[in-house]
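Quick one:
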Amino acid sequence: MKRRSSIFAVAVVCLALAGSMFADSKAFVGTWKLNLEKSKYAAGQAPKSLTRTVSADGDAVTYKFEGVGADGTAFSFSFTSKYDGKDAEVTGAGMPYGADHIAIKQVNSHETTATLKKGDKVVGSSTATVSHDGKMVTLTSKGTYANGKPVKSVSIYEKQ
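Output:
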């Protein structure tokens, strides 16, 4: 009887932890607007505006980005990932570094890493972290433009 109670207790704790981990894995879901005043970009490279909308369907997460670039041109792109580190195709235009694929891995419930590719060539990487209060995402990115110029940025998004 004592053994059954111990097994039951362990099972309850595991289920509780799994449930809380699942709930936290949705930390990225929502609509997020770029806060340009808190973000850091190289001179002349910050977009004028940028909104990212993240939705989940089972284990797949869809990201949609809409904004206006530094040059005043509107852009929109999206992709769907399973946070499994496998390449996902990017549709639309405006993805940083001209990337046409992205591979995202979930590090923990509030952090992901991504590799951006153009064809088979890696052109950038990023780390996204959701604050523990769920109100802010910090996206640290680095990459190389087609002209070979390296670039780094820190983008701060606030939940809407």
